[in-house]
Structure formats: C-alpha cells, structure tokens
Design a protein that fits this description.
The complex is a heterodimer of chains A (about 475) and B (about 475). With about 475 residues, chain A is of the alpha/beta class. Chain A has a single domain, classed as Amidase signature (AS) domain (Amidase signature (AS) enzymes). Helices cover about 35% and strands about 15% of the residues of chain A. Chain A has 15 helices and eleven strands. An eleven-stranded mixed β-sheet of chain A has the order 1-3-2-4-6-5-10-11-9-7-8, sandwiched between helices. The radius of gyration of chain A is 21 Å and the shape is globular. Chain A starts with 7 loop residues before the first helix and ends in an 11-residue tail after the last helix. In chain B, α4 links the parallel β13 and β14. Chain B has three domains: about 300 residues, no CATH class; about 110 residues, no CATH class; about 60 residues, Arc Repressor Mutant, subunit A, CATH 1.10.10. With about 475 residues, chain B is of the alpha+beta class. In chain B, α7 packs across α8 and α9 packs across α10. Chain B has 16 helices and 17 strands. In chain B, strands 1, 2, 6, 7, 8, 11, 12, 13, 14 and 15 form a ten-stranded mixed β-sheet that branches. Classes of the chains: A alpha/beta (about 475), B alpha+beta (about 475). At the A-B interface, α9 of A face loops of B.
Chain lengths: ~475, ~475
C-alpha cells in the first residue's frame, strides 16, 4: 500500500524504527499528486526537489522527523511563496518562518506543498482563490469547503499526510467536515499566530487538518505553547495531548445547543449528528440540552468584526514594499488604487469596504462597538453552557459539500455555510470537526465538538473515543 | 463694529518625543539614530505579512515615568489602538497608537522663568510662573523617513517603530514666549528622567502647534490653524510670532481665518498653506487586536516610580536653599544634569558652595563647555573657592590659578605653591613690610596724619611691591592704619 494512505502516527512509528525512510513517503505522495492533483488542485505550489532534499536530511529521531506536512498558503515559510491565493502577493517570498512552521521544522517535519485557499482566507468554498478552484475528492463537481479547502482536499485525497490550516470563522472545521477529515481549531491563544498572514487578528487561529484525531493531537502538541512573538498566546506550559487515550466517554456531560439544530438544515446531516449524540449517550455520557441564546446574532457580529480587522490588516498590501505593484503609476494615489484594484479579488474588496464602513465615523457605534458588545454576550453564552456540560456537540456545517459555482453569486448564502462554526471563533473556544457519517450520495458529514477555553484535551479524548468506534475515517474518497 | 483694542492668541501644542530605549516599540530592532538606511529593520517594523507586534516594556515604563514627573493620572489599564491612514512611510498603513485609554491623562508643565527667551526673562509673562495643563500622554510607534529625489522617492525604515510619546497640552498658552518656555521646561523634565534626549534638531522632539486669535475677554476660541515643520524651540517662537501677527492682521481687515494646516518656512520667516481642512480625516480608530491591554498597576507603575529623579523645580529649590546659588544658576544647573552632577561633586567637600557655582558656571563653562569630558576633577573647584574665601590667595591670583588649572589640571593648592602665589597673611612679616614702608615714605606718613587719608595708598603700594603682590591687602590696610594712628 502507498505510504500516502497511512496516518501520521503510523508513519512516525515506522520512521523511527527505520522500517521506512522519509524519501519513501515523499515519493509515494508525489506519485499520488502526479495522478490526481490535476483533478483536485489542492496545491498552489509544490517544490518536489526541495521536499526530496529535505527528506534525505530528515532526522527520524525527532518527534516529527521526516513527516511531510502541507501548509496553507497563508503561512510564512522562509524562502517559499506565500500567496494567500491572491494576485497581490505574486512573486512574494517569505522572509521568515512563522512560529508554527518553525516549531514543525524543529520537530523534524518537512514541507511538501502549499495549499490552495479562499483569497486571504475569505470564503467557505475555496472558489475565491485567484489561483484556481479546488475540487472535493468525494465528488469533483463539488466544493471542498473553505477557506482551508486545499489543505482539507489534500489530506482527504491522500495527497498529504497532514496539513496546517487557519480558522477565522470555520475555515479549518467546515472544509474538514465537507472533505471527511479531522480539523481542529484550538482555543484562541493556544498556537502562535506569528507568521500567519492576518485576516481577523482577534479570531484567527492556526490548526491541523489530519486523517485521525490522534494525528491532530500529535501536531497540536508540537504547535501549542507561548510564543514571545505573539502577545496573545497563552502563558501555560506546553502539553502533550492525548498521551493516554481513555477511549471512553463514560460520565461525560455532552451539551446539545438547541440553536444548532435548525429547521433548514440537511436532514441527512442532522440525522448523522443526532446519531453521534446517541452513541455518546449509549456509551455512558449524559446528554444535556443547553442554550446559546445569542447564536442568531453571530453571523452579523462576525461579518462586522472580522471585516473591520481585515480592513486594517490588508491595508499593508499597497504595492510599495512587496507583492504586486501597478505598472507605471501616475502618482502615489494611482499606485495605491491600481495595485489594490488589480491585486485583490471581489470578495476581498467587498470585505475591505464593509470593514472600512463599520469603523467609519458616525457608524462605528452602531456597528463596530455594538458588535463588540454582542461578542461579549456570545462569550457569556458559552461560559454559562459550560457550567452545565463538559463539551458541546453540534453539526459542523448545516449541509454536506455543495456544487461548485452554486453560491459564488450569492455571498449571503455563502456566509451561512459557517453558521455553526463562527460563534466559537467569537468566543475563543477550541473545537474539532470529525466525520460522523455519509450521505446517500457518499458525501461526508462532520460532527463538531466544542470545548471550554483550553479544553483541547477533553475535546481530543472524546473525539478519539468516538472515532475509534467507527470506521468513517478509513473510507477512501473516489476521486 | 469697532475693532477691539487688543487681541490674544490661544495656543496648544502636540509634542512628539522619541523615547530613549534599547529596542524599538514593537520589535527587537535596535533603537538608534544614524545607521545605514534600512539596516535596523525586521519583518515586524517593515510590516511584512504575518508579523506581529510585541510591546516594549521599557517604553511603557518610561512613558509612565514621564506621566509621574508631570503629575499625570496613570491609567491602571491602558490599551493600544490602530489609527488607519495610508502613507508610504507607514509600513502597515495603520499606526499602533493609543486613543481611548492612553497611559497618562492630565498633568501639567510649570514654566521656568529662566527658560523663556533671554529677552523675556524679566518680563511679566516669565515672572507669572504659569502652569500649563496637559490633556494626555500616549505611546505610539514612529513612522519611517521618506526621501524625495528628482524622479523617485526612497524610504528608510530605520526610524519606523521607534517608541514615540505624544504629549498634548490644553490650549492654555497665550504667547510665543510661553510656548518657548513650555518646550524648554518640558525638555528639562524629560532630560531629568532620562526618558529622551529630546533634541528638536535631531527630530527626537517634534512639535505641532495649534493657534488661533480672539479679542481679549472673549470666551470662544477663534478658528485654529495648525503649524507644521517646526524644527527648533526658537523656530516655534518665530513661527508663532509670525502667525499670530498674520491672523490679527487678517481679522482686523475683516477676513475670515481658514481652518487649515500651514507650513513654517524658517528661511522665509513666514507660514504657507499646506492643506485646508474642509473634511476632517477619519482615522477609524479601533482597539489593536494583536496586543493585550497593558496593566500598569501590577508592577509597571512601581518600576517607573523607582526611576523617579529629583524634578527640576525641586532641584532648583534645593540648590538655592542649601547651596545659596542664584535662581538663574539653579535653573542652568537643573537644565543640564551632567553639569549639575559635576557641580554637586565640586560643592560636596566645601562650605563655599555658592562660590563654587560661580567658578563653574562663569569661568569653567566658558573654557570647557562639556564637563563630562573635562580632565579637571570637580573637587578642585571646591579647593579653589576655599583658597579665595580663606584669604590664601586674592582674586587676581585666583584667576592665575584657574588658568593654570585649565592648562595643567592639578590641585589648586599645588598650583599656588608651584607658582609661588600664596598670599602673605603672616602678621609679623606684614608688619615688617609696613614698618619699612613708613620709614621710606615720611612725606606720605605726614600727609596721612594731616588728614589726607588717600596718602595711605602710596604706603600700601610700597608694601605690595616689596611683597611681590603677595601681601594680603586687607591685613596690610589694617596694620598700616594701626601703626599710623599710634
């Protein structure tokens, strides 16, 4: 069997026992990429030579020694492109390593492939990429989700063992759900954001996309911990997650927030998620109905706060110092206007304009400041829910992968794809998405487990127990 | 409508001060003036994608220290905000600044009469010793520096990210002289705390001025004009004198003052319109999400307090009371902590502290303006002052000792001996000289005794000549008088 089909945990064991070499994994992945990447298009850039050279030098005694990891194209890795799937970063080469990248490097990982995404992580289908669409490995007429669609498609499609993504409103979990892999958005502050090209600074969080919960825990252990370069990282000591899997959910109080089971959602998705809840109950957990009453406001709050922050974060792309610069500008204003007009795609422009508007004098009170207040209420919703339960169980996405092109002309409908994931970014909580079933047409369905702040160990234990008593994760996509 | 007899100006200042710190405000780059262009930069201060700011504790502490020195309220929790505007010298196209919760609020700068322009030091405005209220002090990052060539422009990012304090005054100032004294007095406080070198010529202290005029007695402010490109404290005075004159001239002619920003041209001695402010810029401030709020009440404030220096006003009062120096001397000393340290060392070992101040501030500074590099040990001035006061040498001899001290630094006592300058104060020796003088000048003796008191001078001259100028003149006078009236 091709090594491309194995989990990170299994490859790690085989590498450290010298049964296989890192170059074997890279070669097998390149073979898979050679046959299927032209259909899936999970990557924006692959440097085969560099990956093979790194594999030759890999030190298999290190925790991730010789394991190839794919990086979302918004993470700086020294000397590599970092386009954010935008024309405005054409030709840009990262001048430094993101802390997450440096930590993986230090743990011995090597990098194979930069994955496609919605431009600047703004989108839920990866269709907002200036570098082409990515297709879902389960059905190539459908979207892979987004914005980390390339990472999810690569991991699900056996084109990568594991990948990093970023999650601002669901960008790791939603594509993981739609592609049938495991996506973890850690608690805000768990992983350093240094070197992640910012979309919305108070919401962004890096996380792993993997085939299994165990693989997710392995990567989280390597990535987590305080970084002196990121003022918002948490100061607690580094942990090793899931070092002793219990395989049990006995006594766990699982909360089902009533606002997360909507009348309009896909009946198949709802049935699969309720089935998962039933499994927890059958295995000794208690189901508790809880309420997160401010949930209906979450999308509005998100699109005010995220775009406000983005309008400032993306101001630096002006053609002055790096990236795309308008040819022969008349003057400074023309340089700004044309570099940005030519460089950004329509969704990015829409969000910059929206964010600029909600911060403008005369509107900031009604939009930005009000949204901040509601954000506080959402946070309280979660705090009070976690006095009644240990974890929340919800669908990740209201429906399975939708057809390519279906929503590109209807941004509001597109925004609804993140309705179950956005609140956790606003509240800062960690959450995981893992497969919990398939539709009749063989599309994966995702289950979301949300934990209290810094409750990753709880999340991973429960997710692992559920995953290991099912075989959803073993299924292979057809593409 | 009759034009009012008198106009008054209303002036407010916004002073930017570069903090003296090891590293920049939000990154580890060295904070130093004058490196090769773009040599002191990193992804953070260049605003590269993905980079994040980390606040510089030393800069926060020095801002708090400034606030404490100026009597501000220190916010227990301060926050940073983003100020959005596009300009090529700003790497991120937003500046990390403070808007709603600055580190310091309130406070005041007391105007030191001796820091008014020289020609105004005796004026009523200097003697008024006014205190100018501050609105706030906040901390932000400096921008890069643009250079414009014929065809292109260049940007040096070394300055980008330098910690910058913005000190905003209330519109309490009324005259160009007060603005001059405000900047000088503020600078003196900043220097005393070691927070900045605050040199306007080097751009370490930069000042924007808001000025309007109104009839004396009117409460409402006139339309204000902002002045830019003020590169020295005296430039601020000149610009204000011109601009106030221009505004009064305009309103007396019945013209309206435009709300605008004007540029001061020091060579032309005039201000010129830069841009009119039809629409106020919307900076779209919002809390900086990359930085946590700064708690100052958990150690930062304490650390700043431990760095509190003796403030200029307190230092001046102490020097006047304890050392007997003049108000002017106290002001000069308080303005230069290196000089003051030198003086205090010089005065430490002697009772004659006021005399030491005269030596150092008059004679010494004229020859060696930089006490930090002077080879002359400060204690020598205490010794020199002592020799004069105790009558070992007279003032003419003292000048000779001083000249030698500057040329070949050594203990003044040793110099006196080397040059054979010691005054003869021995009564026996002086009496012998006096007897000789009386014997040799019978005519003068007679004249003196017959009432011509001036005749004694010829006898004194004789003694001084005989003693090669070393005789103690006061004693000689006493001895001669005693002998002649015997």
């Amino acid at each position: 069997m091709s090594l491309a089909h194995e989990t990170l945990a299994s490859l790690r064991r085989r590498l450290s026992s010298k049964e296989i070499h890192s170059r074997d994994i890279v070669k097998d992945l390149l073979t898979e990429i050679g046959t299927r990447e032209k259909t899936v298009h999970a990557f924006t850039h692959i440097d085969e030579k560099a990956a093979l050279a790194a594999a030759e030098k890999a030190d298999s005694s290190l925790p991730l020694g010789g394991i190839p990891i794919a990086l979302k194209d918004n993470l700086n890795a020294l000397g590599d492109p970092c386009t954010c799937s935008s024309k405005i970063l054409e030709g840009y080469k990262a001048p430094y390593d993101a802390t997450a990248v440096a930590r993986l490097r230090q743990a011995g990982a090597i990098f194979l492939g930069r994955t496609n995404m919605d431009e600047f992580a703004m989108g839920s289908s990866t269709e907002n990429s200036a570098l082409g669409i990515t297709r879902n490995p389960w059905d190539s007429t459908r979207i892979p989700g987004g914005s980390s669609g390339g990472s999810a498609a690569a991991v699900a499609g056996r084109l990568a063992i594991a990948a990093l993504g970023s999650d601002t409103g669901g960008s790791i979990r939603q594509p993981a759900a739609l592609c049938g892999c495991v996506g973890l958005k850690p608690t805000y502050g768990r992983i350093s954001r240094y070197g992640l090209v910012a979309f919305a600074s108070s919401l962004d969080q890096i996380g792993p996309l993997t085939r299994t919960v165990e693989d997710s825990a392995i990567l989280l252990s390597a990535l987590a911990g305080h970084d002196p370069r990121d003022n918002t990282t948490d100061l607690r000591k580094p942990e090793t997650f899931l070092s002793k899997p219990t395989g049990s959910v006995q006594g766990l109080r699982v909360g089902l927030p009533k606002e997360y089971f909507l009348p309009g959602m896909s009946p198949e998705a709802e049935a699969a998620v309720r089935g998962a809840a039933h499994w927890f109950e059958k295995n000794g957990a208690t189901l508790v109905e809880v309420s997160l009453p401010h949930t209906p406001a979450a999308i509005a709050v998100y699109y005010i706060l995220a775009t406000a922050e983005a309008s400032a974060n993306l101001a630096r792309f002006d053609g002055v110092r790096y990236g795309r610069r308008a040819v022969e500008p008349k003057d400074l204003l023309d340089l700004y206007h044309r570099s940005r007009s030519e460089g950004f795609g329509p969704e990015v422009k829409r969000r910059i304009i929206l964010g600029t508007f909600v911060l403008s004098q005369g509107y900031a009170d009604a939009y930005y400041r009000k949204a901040q207040k509601v954000r506080g209420l959402l946070r309280q919703d979660f705090e009070s829910a976690f006095t009644k339960c240990d974890l929340l169980l919800t669908p990740t996405s209201p429906e399975p992968a939708f057809p390519l092109g279906e929503r590109t002309q209807d941004p509001l409908k597109m925004y609804l794809a993140d309705v179950f994931t956005i609140s956790t970014n606003l509240a800062g909580n960690g959450a995981i998405s893992l497969p919990c079933g398939f539709t009749k047409s063989n599309l994966p369905i995702g289950l979301q487990l949300i934990g209290p702040h810094f409750g990753e160990e709880k999340i991973l234990q429960a997710a692992h127990a559920y995953e290991q008593s099912h075989d959803f994760w073993k299924r292979m996509p057809p593409v | 409508m009759s034009s009012p007899a008198k106009w008054e100006a209303v002036i407010g200042l916004e002073v930017h001060v570069q903090l003296h710190t090891q590293t920049k405000m939000f990154c580890g780059c060295i904070n130093q003036y004058g490196g090769a262009a773009n040599s002191q930069v990193c992804p953070v201060c260049l605003g590269m994608p993905g980079s994040l700011p980390v606040p510089n504790e030393e800069a926060i502490r020095k801002t708090i220290l400034t606030g404490l020195m100026l009597g501000c309220r220190i916010a227990p929790v301060a926050r940073f905000d983003r100020k959005n505007y596009f300009y090529p010298d700003m790497p991120k196209n937003y500046q990390i600044s403070q808007f709603e919760d600055p580190l310091c609020a309130g406070g005041a700068v007391g105007l030191d009469p001796f820091l008014f322009p020289k020609d105004l030091q005796e004026s009523d405005e200097a003697k008024a010793k006014r205190s100018i209220r501050l609105t706030r002090i906040h901390l932000e990052e400096d921008v890069a520096k643009s250079f414009h060539y014929e065809e292109r422009s260049g940007i040096d990012f070394n300055r980008a990210g330098t910690p910058l304090m913005e000190i905003v005054s209330e519109a309490d100032l009324r005259t160009p002289g007060e603005a001059f004294a405000f900047l000088g007095s503020l600078r003196q406080v900043l220097l005393s705390g070691g927070v900045s070198s605050a040199d306007m010529e080097k751009g370490q202290m930069r000042c924007d001025v808001n000025v309007s005029v109104r009839p004396v007695g009117q409460k409402e402010f006139g339309t204000k004009v902002e002045l830019k490109n003020l590169n020295s404290i005296s430039g601020v005075r000149r610009a204000l004198e011109y601009e106030i004159g221009r505004q009064i001239g305009a309103v007396e002619k019945g013209e309206a003052i435009q709300h605008e920003t004007r540029r001061w041209d020091d060579d032309a001695g005039a201000t010129f319109t830069m841009r009119t402010k039809e629409k106020a810029h919307d900076y779209r401030y919002f809390p900086e999400p990359d930085l946590l709020p700064v708690r100052t009440d958990q150690g930062l404030r304490k650390a700043a307090e431990s760095g509190l220096p003796e403030l200029p006003a307190a230092l001046q009062a102490r020097l006047m009371q304890e050392n007997g120096v003049t108000a002017y001397q106290a002001s000069v000393l308080a303005a230069d902590r290196v000089l003051c340290g030198y003086y205090e060392k010089a005065a430490a070992g002697t009772k004659h502290k006021a005399a030491v101040a005269n030596w150092i501030l008059n004679d010494f500074l004229a020859t060696q303006p930089d006490p930090a590099t002077s080879p002359v040990r400060p204690e020598f001035f205490g010794e020199l002052a002592g020799l004069v006061v105790e009558g070992v040498i007279n003032s003419a001899q003292a000048k000779k000792v001083f000249a030698e001290l500057m040329a070949n630094p050594a203990s003044p006592k040793a110099i006196v001996e080397k040059l054979g300058l010691a005054q003869i104060s021995d009564v026996g020796a002086l009496a012998a000289f006096c007897d000789e003088a009386i014997a040799a000048n019978p005519r003068s003796v007679e004249d003196y005794r017959s009432g011509k008191s001036n005749a004694i001078n010829a006898l004194k001259g004789f003694v001084m000549k005989k003693s090669q100028g070393k005789a103690n003149p006061t004693q000689v006078d006493e001895i001669l008088k005693a002998k002649l009236s015997a």
